[in-house]
Amino acid sequence: MQPHQLELLAPARTFDIGIEAINHGADAVYIGGPSFGARSTADNSIQDIAKLVQYAHRFHSRIFVTLNTILRDDELEGARKLAWQLYDAGVDALIVQDMGLLEIDMPPIQLHASTQTDIRTPEKAKFLQDAGLSQIVLARELTLPQISAIRDAVDTERTVIEFFVHGALCVAYSGQCFISHAHTGRSANRGDCSQACRLPYEVKDAQGRIVAHDKHVLSMKDNNQSENLRALVDAGIRSFKIEGRYKDMAYVKNITAHYRKLFDEVLTERPELAPASHGRTTFNFEPDPNQNFNREFTDYFVQGRKEDIGAFDTPKNPGQPIGWVSKVSAEHVEITTDDPATELHNGDGMCYYDLQKELVGLQINRAEAQKAKGVWRLFPKDPMDGFKDLRKGVQVNRNRDMSWVRTLDKKSAERRMGVWMQLAENTGGQGEGLQLTLTDEAGHTGTAQTAIDWQASKDPAQAEDKLKAALGKLGDTLFEPFDVQTALPRPWFVPPSQLNALRRDAVQALEAARAQGLHRLPRAVPVEPPAPYPEDTLTYLANVFNQKARDFYAKHGVKVIDAAYESQEELGEVSLMITKHCVRFSLSLCPKQAKGVTGVQGTVKAEPLQLINGKEKLTLRFDCKPCEMHVVGKIKKSVLNAVPESPVQFYKTRPLVQGMH
Known about the structure:
The protein is α/β, with parallel strands linked by helices and 661 residues long.
């Protein structure tokens, strides 16, 4: 990718969703392969990925495959074989977390740093660039000045800086959360997170007083950077990533379309920038991020620390306010909509908050419009007496609009590339005939010839217009005509069958030229001698889980290397999660706030808090200087006693191989 190109990077759980991401304007798609993809139920076969690559490459869109779990020694060979299969399938890059992969016989495929590599500093970003990673995704917690500092530290000719612009937010710095493994043995670093952050907790202070009851204090709202795109471009971001490899088709279509439209506006304003792939996308619907499942939106820390980043009341989708209850009966509920023009449909999803501020879902079987405008009688799927605190005056939200769902079930976008078409006489050696040349927006050309018998047109005045109209019928190809020129000295009549064959051959020639014009992304060569890692000691937080990863860090000057948390050597209380989100700040208990000045640097002592969910107890400790929170706990006995998937042998020193002295 060139430094002036902007890439819209969309997720795909499956092959079909990947195709629609491309159709809806994605410049690149990231998808999981058959294994090691950090999303335990979003695997895809090599065959499907190869088909997706073929389709994407027609638009010069790219396909990146996630190979981003941490690997045990006995998995490295499987990962190596898979990398070669993906390379042979034409995949453009692999997204990786485990540095052990850089020490084995990988194919010459471009490598990108996964969000799990936790890139928060210019030093770490530059190190990963020097180690051979060509695209790096920054931590979602960074501010615009921090992003700019990273841009200034790396070589933007060699390194693409990527940033998450939309979707669910992990409350922890990615790669720095071990709660799931400690409590269940399911490791987030291995794609199997149990999402402890979405649970409700009781929050107690150091004296045992309850500060908050049944609040989802670790649950974040969803990321939405729609308002910040220009600022992010200015700060150096070139790849804009949508979260969502677990998300459904409608989400990917809608959110990709939403950002495609926003980026097309930016590209129109700034002619010095260009999209990273080709073609224009038109939509049969108006994209709207509010229509998909979301926990309401935040732009997180991009513009600095904000008060309202958490979805503390519920991790569910509260939807959009739509009206209020005007009557409740034994069979149905009547609601009056805020806007009388609002249409409700059978199958819509509604919800409201009960008196405990819990979100209660209300699935509608049948919606009947009443005589009075804006009044609807709703018959829910479940019996009316089960709806707690549903009474007159309660505000009702809609979190699923069936007509919207149906719109996105149908074909909802078209992506085409503009071509200039020129028909001329071909006076080459083989008698007279016609030559059709197609030139696309990137300058690729395809040419076809046909010999024809000279036939005068019956209607010379209309002949040229008819030829142009017939040539411009590009139908179900990927192309649409920008302009059709005929450079003919006399008015020909060309039989439609010959014209169609000529056009078909020219389109094929152009597709072939485009395929030839797409070059594989180069694998970056690591700097020699190896760049020193910014620190000389690594704790379990570095996620080093195999001997090759150890070798990698040792080669880069690290002296002390602890094993990853998953190797179960940390038996005491340790930080199970490190996050920029601060529960004290969110509950207005921050000592810095108390001083009346937000963000004072200095020695501020914040007492720990406790989080309690059933029998689970976690301690919150506050590191006020960098303004971070640590969630502290220890690994459960049941996890330690469970048989590991495969025993990990992790050596503190190099083992002596038998027979070698």
